[in-house]
Design brief:
single chain; two-stranded parallel sheet; 2 domains; alpha/beta; 329 residues
């Protein structure tokens, strides 16, 4: 922490209390934020540091996100002013609304990658940006470390499956994955979960389905197809497999066909099948279904030939074997 050669004033500040601690809410210009904040690295000589090294990729990703313009909303950074910021109300009638007189720097408890991304963004665009913040008036070093630990270990992210669900209106494959879970006629209706929490009955997450669809659509990424057309292809493919193996599809315990490693491999094979059945950016569904049905008489039992297949490498190896199988018939 360093004292500032010239104090900086922050206007339009709300003073509040959070669990007995005084805190401030407002926004900073990026230029002021860079002067007013610092990070305590985990290897700080004082022994009181805790922040991880900056991940440059995360900063670049956030800078790219900011390029979306008005759509690029983000959460406030969290600071500890350590008693270096003095609040002055504008008048007695509104004692919680005023300005901060900042004589020293505040430590960044949460938001160093956002600040890093903002630094890159304004350097590349020569623009300015306002940064929302919440600053505690004073936390001692132990309180600061404890809060950082809570934010980064106790707080749970929403998970990739729910994230895909939230993007269903802007991303085709997220929409298709969602439809495959919520449609009653879908082969994944009773075995898929949107929120990402697996149970004995619902063992396929929306994120699993999203990845399967990425494999399935790999050969037709450049085709001009609507999401409804992509949905029809996915539904036809997986539903035909379910109809071919109805008992195995519903028996997760004794059959591997709906285990993720096998569904990934089937999706990879499906991509090849889709590609062979495309004509003028349209799929020949008669040929498509006939080709899928060549994948018959496969032993999907948990004690069968695929019992040791694991991971993405296993999925790719299995896909190679299954491709040979349908091409030979």
């Amino acid at each position: 922490m360093a004292m500032l050669p010239n104090q900086i004033t922050i206007e339009n500040v709300l003073q509040c209390k959070m669990r007995g601690r005084v805190a401030y809410q407002s926004y900073l210009t990026a230029n002021d934020a860079f002067h007013l904040t610092y990070v305590k690295p985990y290897d700080d000589p004082s022994g009181k540091g805790y922040q991880r090294p900056v991940d440059n990729k995360r900063c670049r990703d956030f800078s790219k996100y900011l390029s979306l313009g008005e759509k690029a909303l983000f959460t406030p950074i969290l600071l500890n002013a350590s008693g270096n910021w003095e609040f002055v109300p504008y008048d007695k009638l509104r004692p919680s609304y005023g300005r901060l007189i900042c004589k020293g720097q505040a430590s960044v408890m949460d938001g160093q990658h956002r600040l890093g991304g903002i630094r890159l963004y304004i350097k590349e665009t020569n623009s300015e940006i306002n940064i929302p913040f919440i600053a505690f008036h004073f936390l001692d070093e132990e309180e600061e470390i404890e809060l950082f630990d809570t934010i980064n270990t106790k707080a749970k992210g929403i998970g990739s499956s729910l994230s895909r669900y939230l993007r269903r209106d802007t991303d085709d494959l997220s929409w298709i994955a969602t439809q495959l879970i919520i449609r009653p006629d879908s082969p994944f209706y009773n075995i898929g979960t949107i929120i990402g929490k697996r149970t004995n009955n619902r063992h396929i997450t929306l994120q699993n389905l999203y990845r399967m669809l990425c494999f399935l659509n790999k050969q037709v990424e450049d085709q001009r197809m609507s999401k409804e057309e992509k949905m029809a292809i996915a539904f036809t493919y997986y539903n035909t497999l379910r109809e071919m193996y109805p008992k195995e599809w519903g028996d997760y315990k004794n059959s591997r066909i709906t285990h993720i490693v096998c569904l990934d491999s089937l999706s990879m094979v499906g991509s090849e099948i889709v590609s062979t059945c495309m004509q003028n950016e349209k799929i020949d569904y008669n040929k498509f279904i006939k080709t899928i049905k060549k994948l018959k008489n496969i032993d999907w039992s948990t004690h069968g030939p695929f019992r040791f297949v694991k991971g993405i490498a296993g999925s790719r190896s299995l896909a190679t074997d299954l491709s040979k199988l349908y091409m030979e018939k």
